[in-house]
Amino acid sequence: MIQFTSKGIYCVPGKFYLDPWQPVDLAIITHGHADHAYPGMKKYLCHHFTVNILKSRIGHDIQVEGVAYNRPFHINGVKISLHPAGHIIGSSQIRMEYKGKVIVFTGDYKIQDDGLSTPFEPVKCHELITESTFGLPIYHWESVAAQTQRLNEWITHNQGFKKTSVFIGYSLGKSQRILNAVKDMGEVYVHYSIAKLNMAYSEAGIQLPPYHIVDLRKDTKQLDGKIVLLPPALLDTHLLQKIPNVAYAICSGWMQIRGARRWRSADAGFAISDHADWNGLLQVVKDSEAEKVYVTHGQTATFSKYLNEIGIEAEEVKTNYGEEISL
Amino acid sequence: MIEFATLINALDSSNKTSLKKEAIIRFLTFAPEKDKLWFLALMTGKRPKRPIATKDLKTWVLELTNIPEWLFTECYAAVGDLSETLSLLLPPPTERNDKSLSDWMEDIVILANASMSEKKAFVLASWNALNTIERFIFNKLLGGSFRLGISAKGLINTIAAHFQIEPSIVAHSIMGEWNPYDFEFDKLVRGEYSNTSLSKPYPFCLAYPIEKELEALGPIIEWQCEHKWDGIRGQLIKRNEEVFIWSRGEELVTAQFPEITDALRQWKDNVVLDGEILAAKDGRILNFTELQKRINRKVISRTLREEVPVVVYLYDVLELNGQDLRSDPLQVRRNLLEQLHQRNGDDIMQLSPLIHCADWTALRLVQAASREVNSEGIMLKKKNTIYYAGRKKGGWWKWKVNPMTIDAVLIYAQKGSGRRSGHYTDYTFAVKEGDHLVSIAKAYSGLTDKEILEVSRFVKQNSLEKFGPVRTVKPELVFEIAFEGIGYSKRHKSGVALRFPRILRWRRDKKAIDIDTLEDIKKLIP
Ligand SMILES: [Zn+2]
Ligand SMILES: [Zn+2]
């Protein structure tokens, strides 16, 4: 029923692809991150919330259709439904049923409720295709409340030294989470590239806290002592140095490890992730009751080996997903 | 140990010295007196005996978490630090213990005499009452070396600036004999427990690399020529029967070189000497990598003393019986040094031999053969100059031999920080050993921005594995690596350590098959 091809994950009877990385006729997209939503497809199918993200990322002229969670539809005799994956807004697990066999592709997911994305919903299946970005038992996320407290304590500390607090996180998903977490701590400025994606949230009816938009190429004086959200791409540029008296923090699951915090040489690192941690991955695999698990990206070899050892048949598959994880 | 954990986290996370200093000052302001003393003790190597072997800690974590050994190994590979790996694997704590650093340390001191089951019970209960970073610190406190993200010198300078005391006083005092039980922090750092003026060093006189033709320096007879020895430049002080050895990094290294301390103590005169500490056996200077075995060791065992015997090659005398000689001409100081050496010298305290050449051409030959005697090149010191404080052009020149080079292939890449963060700029290189590749050197980019972009793209497209931030790269790109010295090393997988490796250029004309073999490289070792 499913083939792992050089273009993407292919549903044979349905004649469609899941998150393909080469041009195909019909692509069902789990979520709007660049490594899962490539340009060049004749037609895209995704959750309603993902539609505008795809349009702003890929082009307004693409052919794209939005569907709701838990509303099954059929393609070539395959019953398909989308289920919340909790990763970012619109992120979906794709459930496919054909002749009584159920396969679920999780895309990227997390169990933690970030307060913005529709919370993850467990789906039972015969075969599960899962990610494993943080598939090592060293990754355990703190509760969202504890994370928020950490961010806020850091801001308070910076404010004590009259410093501007800059957070660096992925512009889609992570930035909105940070914005939500720091809303009571002062005026927030977000980079215009993040603001563009904030629109996707408001269009989906998700209320974000108030923010100002900043373009670092222009004047940065108003940022003094404030809270600023920037995308990782700016780490590569000298624009960061335009903000005087700055402390900057990277928000990423990788920041769990001291070595990662050190070599990125930020002033602080917060282990906040939109992916499931080790226990989250295991819980999803177990709750799915799948007889067979395919692991698409991340710690594929380790995670599948471990699943096999605990009696769950698993196999790693090669995909093009996962470049977003470098931060 | 909240304050201590905050301090460690700050020292760990930032590369900015200003932030590290800020964190230390905050700790010294808010931490309890005893904690401050223990912090200094840990920084200066006055740690208690390790009560529990790391392998026992690991066994208990595997028991608690039900993690198979191979998975532990994977985790360790991703984290790169054993104490940290253990701290990350443990389940979340169910209790909370707010003991201070000094309380923990005192418990750990007592633990050394406990039975194995008592030790285990203590460790398990402690883990269950600490958060991740505190557990990491606790594991480090139990274990051996604790690198705190700041050097002893950085700490000394921070304390000195904050309390407005001379750094040498702080160093003298905290590097000396004391314990966290019977001393007061303020009095300790202010040097009130000892006579710190006795150890006070002079600033080192330093040389610039030579930048003109030798002939432009005038007649060779006006110059004192000697080898530029590749060891630890030191200032050796004997005043009032007390001996102090300072490294050029202004660190007090007296304890690392007991035989030198003993030898100098035998001198009949009170002196301040400038010299090079070198590893030497049977009258031959050994490679710097040998001496490295003695650096950063808190305790120098007898075995180590026998394995790596040291000598001092004396360059200069700066003070004699209380009189500052630095404004005397070099020629006068050297004469005096030779007399002093005749009166006092022995196998350990030797004179740095002078090189007598009739002309510059002859000196060129000596310079070219420097490596054969394990020297880095030649020092040229004008005979009529005073001993300057710091670097001053014209009086002293260093003339180093050209670096050695090898061709190696890129095998690991890691993203850099600062301006070039986001690009792969930190590389590990390998050479051939039979059919395998063995890593030989780590080097930060010596490439142009354009080349870095190209290499980064290659890394992205050709990474075979990811270990956290590190990518294993298809071995294809060949680089010429330059280095200043080479020696045997047990700490390196290749068995070879390169000194100051750097990328000279990208050899696009070469393929992985063309790189050097480990066997060839070992032939470079003098
Ligand atoms: Zn994603
Ligand atoms: Zn992904």
Task: Note the main attributes of this structure.
heterodimer; A: 327 residues; alpha/beta; seven-stranded mixed beta sheet; six-stranded mixed beta sheet; 7 helices; 23% helix; globular; B: 526 residues; alpha+beta; seven-stranded antiparallel beta sheet; 19 helices; 22 strands; binds zinc ion
Explain what you see.
The complex is a heterodimer of chains A (327) and B (526). Chain A is an alpha/beta fold. Helices cover 23% and strands 26% of the residues of chain A. The model of chain A has no long low-confidence stretch (mean pLDDT 91). By secondary structure, chain B is of the alpha+beta class. In chain B, the strands form five sheets. In chain B, strands 4, 5, 6, 7, 8, 9 and 10 form a seven-stranded mixed beta sheet that branches. In chain B, a hairpin with a 2-residue loop joins strand 8 and strand 9. In chain B, helix 1 (2-13) runs antiparallel to helix 2, helix 4 runs parallel beside helix 6 and helix 6 (82-89) packs across helix 9 (132-142). The mean pLDDT of chain B is 87. The two termini of chain B are 50 Å apart. Chains A and B meet through helix 5 and helix 7 of A and helix 5 and helix 6 of B. The site of one zinc ion has 6 residues of chain A, from loops. One zinc ion binds next to loops of chain A.
Spatial shape of chain B: globular
The bound ligands are: zinc ion
- The largest sheet of chain A has its strands arranged as 7-8-9-10-11-18-19
Q: Rounded to an integer, what's the Rg of chain B over CA atoms?
A: 26 Å
Q: What structural category do the secondary elements of chain B indicate?
A: alpha+beta
Largest sheet of chain B: 7 strands, mixed
What is the number of E strands of chain B? 22
The total beta strand count of chain A reads 19
Average pLDDT figure of chain A: 91
Q: State which percent range the strand residues of chain B make up.
A: 15-25%
Oligomer: heterodimer
Mean pLDDT of chain B: 87
Strand coverage percent of chain A: 25-35%
Distance between the termini of chain B: 50 Å
Our count of helices of chain B gives 19
As a percent range, the share of helical residues of chain A equals 10-25%
- Please summarize the sheet with the most strands of chain A: 7 strands, mixed
* Secondary-structure-derived class of chain A: alpha/beta
Share of helix of chain B, binned:
25-40%
- CA radius of gyration of chain A is 20 Å
Supply the number of helical segments of chain A.
Answer: 7
